[in-house]
Amino acid sequence: MMNYKQLYYFWNVAKVGSITRAAEQLHLTPQTISGQISELEASLGTDLFRRVGRRLELTSAGKLAQTQAEEIFQIGNQLEQSLKSGAASPELIFKVGVADAVPKSIAYQLLAPAITLAEPVRLICYEDKLERLFAELAIHKLDLVIADQPLPSELGVKGYNHALGKCGIALYAVPELATRYRSGFPQSLKDAPVLFPGDKVAMQAPLLRWFQEQGMSPRIVGQFDDSALMKAFGKAGAGVFAAPAIMEEEILKQHGAQLIGHASSVQVNYFAISVERRLSHPAVLAVSEAARRSLLMQKE
């Protein structure tokens, strides 16, 4: 069985990046901390740290151990707080992975119902590339993944796609560019600088087809997997960019960009992906049921 005292020492060193600083915080000698970590590494059969100059860096095994240790001690803290407060019903942990292609405001709209349940819920969100999120889902480190595309069968991950809704796509730009390209839209975009979704973003292929249907190829000046980064470039006036039509008011307020026109045949879909065929987690159910009544379904 793992020695959790040794794991706790490792976790503290991993957080501060220094045996000396961890020893000061724990009121122990550096030799004690170092010895305990060496014993932990020996019991696990792998190095958790490597020394780079005077610094300690986590190995790949160390990074995995840090993540797992974080969860272990977080659960321990929750247990302690629950017992001290005499809480009858412990806090429900809801871990969600959000694809970086999903706009933050839409992720909020989809997930907000989870934190309005009668029972206390702690929502823990992670943003990452879809492949990494699907891998975390496969080993049950996530309860749900919010994505703009379904789980690909070729990944070999056992999971189920639950459609949350869809909405149309529009094109935006800062006022100077919007005024220039709004007249004669969509043909006006023929030579316009365009900020395009990246190869991993589900919107890319249908948006490219839409341009082809208009008889032109977009003059792409940048490609972005991260929708927030693309909007930041758009806000700076680097080019025309696409985003869900339901975000028009938000894009005007936050990014100073105006609507140019709608890409009529392009829609983006959103999915909740879980390891459950039949949803049972209370927070997942709340997300799914609220999405059916949300503006995503109404803005088709």
Can you walk through the features of this model?
There is one protein chain. By secondary structure, this protein is an alpha/beta fold. The protein has helices spanning 4-16, 19-26, 30-44, 60-85, 104-111, 130-138, 175-182, 204-213, 227-235, 248-255, 282-293, 295-298; strands spanning 49-52, 55-58, 92-99, 121-128, 144-147, 160-173, 193-197, 219-224, 240-244, 258-274. The chain contains 12 helices and 10 strands. An 8-stranded mixed sheet has the order 4-3-5-10-6-9-7-8. It has a two-stranded antiparallel sheet with strand order 1-2. α1 crosses α2, α1 (4-16) crosses α3 and α1 packs across α4. The protein is elongated. The protein starts with a helix and ends with a helix. The model has no long low-confidence stretch (mean pLDDT 86).
What is the topological layout?
Layout: H1 4-16, H2 19-26, H3 30-44, E1 49-52, E2 55-58, H4 60-85, E3 92-99, H5 104-111, E4 121-128, H6 130-138, E5 144-147, E6 160-173, H7 175-182, E7 193-197, H8 204-213, E8 219-224, H9 227-235, E9 240-244, H10 248-255, E10 258-274, H11 282-293, H12 295-298
Parallel strand pairs: 3-4, 3-5, 7-8, 7-9
Antiparallel strand pairs: 1-2, 5-10, 6-9, 6-10
Helix pairs in contact: 1-2, 1-3, 1-4, 2-3
